[in-house]
Amino acid sequence: MEAYEDFAHVGPGTVAGKFLRQFWQPVAVGDELVIGRPKRIQILNQHYTAYRGEDGVAHVVQDACPHRQTQLFLGWVEGSDIRCFYHGWKFNPQGKCVEQPAEDPAFARKITIEGHPTREYLGLIFAYLGEGEAPPFPEFPEIDPEKDTVLYNRHPVPCSYFQRIENDMDELHLHFVHKVSTDEVGLVEFPEINVTETDYGLLRKGIRKESGHNVTRTAFWMMPNVLMTFTPGRPSRPQWMLHLAWRVPVTDFEMASFIVATEKGGGKGVIPRPETKPDPNFITDEVLAGRMRVQDLDPDYPGLFNVQDNVALAGQGKIVDRSKDRLGQSDKALIVLRKLWERELRCVAEGRAPKAWRRPTESFFQERTRELELAGAIAAE
Ligand code: FES
Ligand SMILES: [Fe+2]
Questions:
Q1: N or C: which end of the chain has fewer CB atoms below 10 A?
Q2: For the segment 316-362, what is each residue's pLDDT rounded down to a tens digit?
Q3: Is the CB of residue 68 below 6 angstroms from any atom belonging to ligand 1?
Q4: Residue in 49, 68, 113 to alter for ligand 1 test, most ligand atoms within 8 A of Cβ
Q5: Which of 274, 266, 272, 26 is nearest to 146 (CA)?
Q6: Which numeric CATH code is attached to 149-374?
Q7: What tens digit of pLDDT does each residue of 260-312 get?
């Protein structure tokens, strides 16, 4: 396998890891980061220290102290800075060593750690973990945190992030993995898969004939790992729902979906999504171990969609061997996705610049068409 064909390995120095680090990534959920309690986080197969300064602003710096490698999350927050637990070296959010209590002041000037640009947005903490200057921060004009209800959470999935991304391209799985729900609403017609490369990534459609609930479903998939879908209102919940999911590698074998589910005009502000009980990953493990069957789960269990997807994805193995796949016409979107990733990773591997991905500055929400009015009988998760 060429290095540019390996999407799964994302640690420092890997091609996919270098590519993903060229974009802002969510690294933690905001309410998990408490002032005075730094947290060791893992993202892209690498550990980092996340903390809030005393003013509440979130920061992300490297994991290990450069003195003798003690993990920095063990230490103290002082103002905007973090002090190491072992011998008290202190670093500012930009990574500059600002104090070494037992050393000559000239020594501190020579010491730096990685201090990453960090931004809190829609309840999530984002960081730019790549080299050089951070690209502009990608905001979503579709969401107005003042007027909408924005629910955020982090959902881990026990397999490679790329399997989760491929699932975002896979409209057909709805009819099997989520069969209980599609049968219930009458979404029974198999889609014709249509996919187009755009300035932001891929526009994916599952085209259906538009009779009853057999509607065309559209997803805006933004490079490198963001899925945006819209669900129109219905009598029981008249507001539009907008769903964003970042598929972020934790390690090579585990990923986390950072979710922002927005109810237009809901007015409750930015709040954490209530926890799903029992934990979908507990059920996923039970099913994968053969102790439960996903077919036997209560159709009203709120974590049903998560468990259904996770079982299908983790059931492929932690990192699926794509060379064994036998793809058909219904995998069209997936084939385009894989080619696109290979093309981009090849640029990175050969030291060329990948495509300058950019989304339109105006809201996708303004461009609703009849198709989108009808789309999304079932929200993607
Ligand atoms: S290991 Fe951090 S100050 Fe010594
Ligand atoms: Fe799914």
A1: N
A2: 999 999 999 999 999 999 999 999 999 999 999 999 999 999 988 77
A3: yes
A4: 68
A5: 266
A6: 3.90.380
A7: 999 988 999 999 999 999 999 999 999 999 999 999 999 999 999 999 999 99
Ligand 1 geometric centre to CA of 107 (Å): 14
Using an 8 Å Cβ cutoff, are 47 and 55 in contact?
Answer: no
Residue 97 has pLDDT above 70, yes or no: yes
Residues near ion ligand 2 (Cβ under 5 Å): 309
> Looking at the CA of 49, which ligand is closest?
1
Q: Domain limits of the chain?
A: 28-127, 149-374
Which phi and psi (to 5°) does residue 250 adopt?
-95, -60
Ligand nearest to the CA of 174: 2
> How much is the pLDDT for 379?
40
Q: Does residue 67 have its Cβ closer than 6 Å to ligand 1? A: yes
What band does 235 get if pLDDT is binned at 50, 70 and 90? Answer: low
301 lines ligand 1 (CB under 6 A): no
Nearest residue by C-alpha to atom 1 in ligand 1:
68
pLDDT mean over 355-378 = 64
CATH of 28-127, picked from 2.40.70.10, 2.102.10.10, 3.40.50.970, 1.20.1540.10, is 2.102.10.10
For the chain, strand residue ranges (E) read 25-29, 39-43, 46-52, 58-62, 76-78, 81-83, 90-91, 97-99, 115-116, 118-121, 124-127, 149-157, 192-197, 201-207, 217-222, 226-231, 241-249, 255-263, 269-272
- Closest-lying ligand to the alpha carbon of 75? 1
